[in-house]
Structure formats: structure tokens, C-alpha cells
Amino acid sequence: MSRAVVTVSGGLDSVTLAHLLFADGWDLTLASFDYGQRHVKELDYAEACAARLGVGHRVVDLRSVGALLSGSALTDDGVDVPEGHYTDESMKATVVPNRNMILLSVATGLAVAEGADVVATAVHAGDHPIYPDCRPEFISGFEALARRANEGFAPAEFSVLAPFLHMDKASIVAKAAELDVPLRDTWSCYRGGERHCGRCGTCVERREAFEVAGVTDPTEYETVAV
Amino acid sequence: MSRAVVTVSGGLDSVTLAHLLFADGWDLTLASFDYGQRHVKELDYAEACAARLGVGHRVVDLRSVGALLSGSALTDDGVDVPEGHYTDESMKATVVPNRNMILLSVATGLAVAEGADVVATAVHAGDHPIYPDCRPEFISGFEALARRANEGFAPAEFSVLAPFLHMDKASIVAKAAELDVPLRDTWSCYRGGERHCGRCGTCVERREAFEVAGVTDPTEYETVAV
Fold first, then answer.
1. What is the C-alpha radius of gyration for chain B, rounded to an integer number of angstroms?
2. Which CATH homologous superfamily contains domain B3-80+97-183?
3. ipTM beyond 0.85?
4. Chain A: nearest CA to B160, how far in angstroms?
5. How far apart are CA A86 and CA B120, in angstroms?
6. A 10-49 residues with CB < 8 A to B
7. Model-level pTM?
8. pLDDT confidence of A103, banded at 50, 70, 90?
9. What is the pairing mode between strands A56-61 and B3-7?
10. Does A63 reach chain B within 8 Å, measured CB to CB?
11. CB atoms within 10 A of CB A33
12. Cβ <8 Å between B149 and A98
């Protein structure tokens, strides 16, 4: 089996992705990014995932990049984290300009340096309305450009694996349950407090995904569901 | 006139590019990158360029990324800087995996955050044989992907400007002379010593460019030309 670099934030989707690839027999390196997100505690869950699977974990310090791209509710203390549903217009406040292109570019550099054939990302269908850099046409374009950028240095069949690209979050929760992924040990909340707030877009989306999937939600929230 | 983010290393090509765009009336922000290159002193020349033009300068700390991508002669003290001609096979040792895709992705994020329409890069024809991420098909592919990644957040006409893409380095020196760019205040040498070494690939290329352009070379080298 070949080697893959998986971008893992520590959230439900990317931790499930790491477990899925591990179960499929891939030789893995997890890559996480500190871009100054206020929910930086998510990285502890990525670290725990790597330890659980017994694979390597690289945390890349991109705080200088995050500082440049301030103005997003995810990185700028002056901007409030919006509440409500994830697909609302208000969630545009959580866009960090060009984030996925930056993170996948760094992951690709790491893959080339390590001789990996694959970069894997947990983008899913629920991300598409808000984040243009999570859409299928971005992922396929990125793969083509990454091959071109590393011609002669990366394997010709270098590819970007995004198995959740056309799945919604509820299907990911169902997949996680099937794989026995300990979803209690994942972090979603954009606020990054002691417990999941239960009200921000990503908490609302997380709760809903468990409900729709019919899987018991092990998450402790600050507030009861609305 | 519109706003452009220009990636400026402090070398001859990118400093000339900044002067060219400034002369053309662009509102500029210079962006430089510390990726742990041993010739990090080049950044002082980028800073001097910004001061001379009276424009903003952002230095992005990507040392954590450089550490991940080690194995290149540019970032790894364990790998010797090759001597000889820039287009030699040996220059492959100076490839930092996916470097341009990473740097241009960060510059694009900055452009979107600042409301700039353009990212400008000084890649030139002499880079093409060695660096796949400096070739015309990479630049056009990058522009298309950057538009896709930032749809709804960047101007629809967002573009990547690479006016030297089909010029060789001698033509850039000629252009610099025409614009009165103080080329003494630029840095090329990969070794990053007190003076330009005169022997590494980029020094050899620099010397040759002045000679071919018929422009007096103001650079102080450690060694005389071979």
C-alpha cells in the first residue's frame, strides 16, 4: 500500500477520514495547521488521533499567515463567531481567504518531500455552499495543478483523495460509527471553549448530523439543542 | 489604478518587478517569505525596496513549512549548495517541494484579504527547465484555480501577473537599467554570505545576465568570473 498525507484538523470529518484510510491499509502521516484559529484546541484531538493510530503527526505553524488574513471570525478576536445554521449567509464571516488552497499546498509539499502519492482531505458536501475552496471543481483543479507544479519530483499518479466530497456530515457520522471512531475525541466548535458551545454554525451542524444519522451524540454541549 | 500584491524575495528579478509595477502606477503591497532559506538576508533587500518605493511590506514566517520540506540545498544545512550553471541537472538540489504553489497561495490569500485584484510574480524563462512551478502552464493553471478557490470573495477578474514569464534574466537586467533600479541593492546568492559567492548557480546566472545585457554589474563577488 502507498503513503498518504492526511490533513487533520481534529474535527469529526478529518478524524474519521484518518481512521478510514488507516483501516484501508494506507501508510499515514497526519498534517495539522495552527493558523491562529481561536479553536486551536482542535489540534489536541488531531494529536490524540495520531497517537491512537500510531502514525506520524506534523503540526505546521502558520500563525504568521493567519495574522495576515485576519478579518475572519475564526482568526480575529474582533469578529464575533456567528450563531445559527452552518449554511446561512452569516457563515461567510468564517471564511479565511484561500485557506484550503494554502493548507493543501503545504500538505502537497510535505507529500512530495516524504515520497507520498496522495494528499487526503475531508472536505464534504456540506462545505460547498459557503466555501468555494471545498467544492468538487476546486479539488479536481487542485489535483491537476499540484501534478503540474511537481512534475518530475512527485509520482506521476499523484492524487488528491477526498472520499467525503459528495457525502453530507450525517453520512460521515454513520461511517464513523461503522468504523468505531471515538467521536467524543473530536472537536468542532469554532469558539474553542471548555466544552462545545452548541450554538455556533459548526456545533449546530454537528448536532444535526448525529440526529440525522441516528447515532448517539457523545458530545457535551454548553446548551441544549434548540 | 488597482492594487497588487507582489511577491518580492529581494533578488534582482522581483525587485525589478516591484519597480516596474510602481512605475506603471499600481498601488502595491510587497510580500516576502521566510521559509528558513540560508540566504534569508535577501529579505533585507526586499525591505529596502519597500522603503525606497514607500509601499507596505509583509514578511510571512513560513519557517515551520521550510523545516517540513527539508532536503533542499536552500533550506537544509546538510545539503551542499551546488556550483556551476543554473540550468544544470545539479540545480535540482535547490528545489523546495511545491514552493511556488505555497507562496503564491499565501500571496493570493493576502490579496483577497486586502481587496487586491492582482498577485504578481517575477518568474522568468530561465526558471523553467529546473522548476516546474515556474512554467507558463503552472502560472495560468494557478490563476484559474485561485479564481475558483475565491469565487464570491475575490474580484471576478482576479489575475496573476507575470510580466517576465517569457523573458530571460538578461532582458530583466536591461529592463532594470531602463527603470534605474539600483541592482546593487538586490541579493541573489544561495549561500547568503557577506558578499555574493560568485560560484553557485544563481550567482553564475546573475553575472551572465549582466554580461549578456551589456550592463555594468555593480555586485561585489567573492571570486572573479570563470
1. 17
2. HUPs (3.40.50.620)
3. yes
4. 15
5. 35
6. none
7. 0.91
8. very high
9. unpaired
10. yes
11. 27
12. yes
* Contact across the interface for B138 and A150, Cβ inside 8 Å: no
User: Is A153's Cβ below 8 Å from some Cβ in B?
Assistant: yes
Cβ burial of B202 (10 Å; 0-12, 13-18, 19+) is buried
Query: Candidates 3.40.50.620, 3.30.428.10, 3.40.50.12650, 3.40.980.10; correct CATH number of A3-76+98-187?
Result: 3.40.50.620
Domain ranges of chain B: 3-80+97-183
Give how far B211 is from chain A: nearest CA, Å: 31
* Cβ atoms B192, B38 nearer than 8 A: yes
- The burial of A124, by beta-carbon neighbours within 10 Å (0-12 exposed, 13-18 middle, 19 or more buried), is given as buried
Percent of chain A whose predicted confidence (pLDDT) is above 90:
71
Look up residue B158 and give its amino acid: F
3-state secondary structure (DSSP) of residue A57: strand
Grid cell in block for residue A17: 477520514
Copy the grid coordinates of residue B58: 509583509
Q: Do A101 and B149 touch (CB under 8 A)?
A: yes
Query: Would you give the DSSP letter of residue A80?
Result: P
> How far apart, in Å, are the Cα atoms of B54 and each of A94, B18, B116, B150?
33, 11, 18, 29
Is the pLDDT at A86 greater than 70? The verdict is: no
Is the CB of B128 inside 8 Å of chain A's CB atoms? no
Compare A197 and B68 and report the one with higher pLDDT: A197
> Does any CB of chain A come closer than 8 Å to the CB of residue B151?
yes
- Average pLDDT along chain A: 90
Between chains, do B132 and A141 touch, taking CB under 8 Å as contact? Answer: no
Q: What pLDDT digit, counting tens, does each position of A174-203 carry?
A: 999 999 999 999 999 988 889 999 998 889
The least confident of A4-13, A72-81, B138-147 is: A72-81
Nearest neighbour of A151 by CB, restricted to B60, B132, B148? B132
Nearest to B69 among A100, A110, A133 (CB): A110
